[in-house]
Amino acid sequence: MNALRVFDSAARHLNLSLAADELRVSHSAVSQQIRQLETWLGGKLFDRHSGGVRLTAAGHDLMRACQPAFDMLEQRCVALRGRTGSADVVIGAPASLLSNWIIPRLEHFESEHPDIQVRLQTATDIALLERGVIDVLIVAEVHASTTIGALRLFPEAIGPVCARELAHRVAMPADMLRMPLLQTSSRPRAWEQWAAACGLAEAPALAPPKHQFDQLGHMLDAAAVGRGIGIAPEMLVQADIQAGRLVAPLGFKETGGWFSLYFRADASAAVADLKRWLKTEAASEAACPP
Questions:
Q1: Could you give the CA distance from residue 12 to residue 212 in angstroms, rounded to a whole number?
Q2: pLDDT tens digits for range 110-121
Q3: What angle do CA 240, 241, 246 make, to 5 degrees?
Q4: In whole angstroms, how far apart are CA 102 and each of 39, 203, 223?
Q5: Can you count the helices (H) and strands (E) in the chain?
C-alpha cells in the first residue's frame, strides 16, 4: 500500500521530487519504493528522461486503478469522520508554514472556538481540498477553480538567509553573485525573482545541483550550518530568524505573489469561523510585522 501511495503521487506529478515533497520523504525513498513496485510487478512503470519521468503503458494502467481506489478510501474516511458530530477543520499547508506561522497562533483560535477541533496536515496539492481530504489549503501558488474559493492572507516576500558568520560578506544584492547559493527544487526561479525585485541587471547564477534541496527544511538546515546562502519566503523563516539560527542580511523583497487560503464552496460553519480568524491574524501581521 505504501508503494502504491508513492506511485500515485509520482504519477500525478510526473516528478519524483514533487512526490517526495507531498509525502514528506526523501527523493531516494520515492525512487526506492517505485523500484520495489516495478520489481514486484515485473515491468517498468516510468520511463526516465532529462526532464523528469513519463508513465509507461503499464504505469497508465496502474494509475487508472489507483486514483479511484484512493479516492474511494478517502471519501469513506471523510464520511466516517463526519459522523462523530464534532466540528473538525483540517488545515493543509506546507510544513514550514505550519511550524512558523500557524502553530504559534493556533492556541488563540482554540481558546476563542473551544467547540472546533483543528487538525493540521502537510499539504500543497489543491486536489486534496477538492476531494475533501482537507478543509482549507494555504499556499503561495495560484489556483483557479469554479468550485474553490480563495482569500488572500498576506503578500509573499522572499530574501537571502544564512548563518551569522556568512552575513558579514553580504552588504548589497550584487554580493550574491560571488556567494554559494542554495535553493529548493520546487522554486527553481526564486533567486531570479529576488534579483529582479532588487533591480539587478544580472540575475545570480542558479546554484549547482549539489546545492539544490528537495525540501525547504533541508535547505534551511544547510544554510544554518554555513554551507551557503538560501532563498526563502519571510513568513516561513520567522522562527529561525527570531531564534538566531538564521539571519536575513538584506531583508526581504515582495514577489507580487500572495499566500492565499483556499476553501470549497460548500465549506462548513467551522471553516467560515477559521477563515475570519485567519484573515484577522494576517491583517494583524501586516500592521505589526515581527
A1: 23
A2: 889 888 889 898
A3: 80
A4: 41, 33, 23
A5: 12, 10
The backbone torsions φ and ψ at residue 254, rounded to the nearest 5 degrees and listed phi first, read -70, 140
Consecutive H or E run containing 153? strand 148-161
The per-residue pLDDT for 204 is 46
Q: What is the value of pTM for the model shown?
A: 0.60
- Shortest CA distance to 97 belongs to which of 120, 128, 119, 113? 120
Distance of CA 28 to the CA centre of its chain: 19
Reduced to 3 states, what is the DSSP secondary structure of residue 211?
A: helix
Distance between CA atoms of 219 and 212, rounded to whole angstroms? 8
- For residues 251 and 167, what is the distance between their CA atoms, to the nearest angstrom? 11
For the chain, give the mean pLDDT: 84
268, β-bridge pairs = none
Place of cell 533591480: 199
Q: What parts of the chain have a pLDDT lower than 70?
A: 78-87, 201-210, 285-290
Q: Calculate ∠ Cα 35-221-288, nearest 5°.
A: 125
Backbone angles phi, psi at 182, to 5 degrees: -120, 150
